[in-house]
Write a structure and sequence with these properties.
Helices cover 21% and strands 29% of the residues. The chain is built from 2 helices and 5 strands, in the order βββαββα. Strands 1-2-3-5-4 form a 5-stranded antiparallel sheet, with no helix packed on it.
């Protein structure tokens, strides 16, 4: 495991082009959780998620198992950069079309 947060446990094997995730569902139904993945894939096709299974963790929390392209970055965004791009209390949806 290379990372774990409230949303997912992330696994990576050196050299693989993808990561595997056990993603916790914050949605009231499985259908809504899968709809969120479809929306993500529409908005961010370069990091599209491929759901291929379901499980429950040791606390019986429902999780969706998926793969996603591994994105190697030079550095993480700073808090200041995130605050500038994502004003408090808002979510920016949309992307530039070419």
């Amino acid at each position: 495991m290379i990372a774990q947060g409230a949303e997912a446990k992330v696994y990576y094997r050196e050299g693989d082009p993808t990561v595997a995730k056990e993603r916790a569902s914050i949605y009231s139904t499985t259908e809504k959780a899968l709809d969120a993945i479809v929306l993500h894939n529409y908005l961010f096709p370069e990091t599209a998620m491929n759901a291929f299974g379901f499980t429950r963790d040791s606390d019986s929390l429902f999780r969706i198992i998926l793969t996603q392209p591994y994105v190697r970055c030079l550095r993480l965004a700073t808090k200041e950069e995130i605050d500038t791009l994502m004003p408090k209390g808002s979510v920016i949806i949309g992307r530039a079309r070419e």
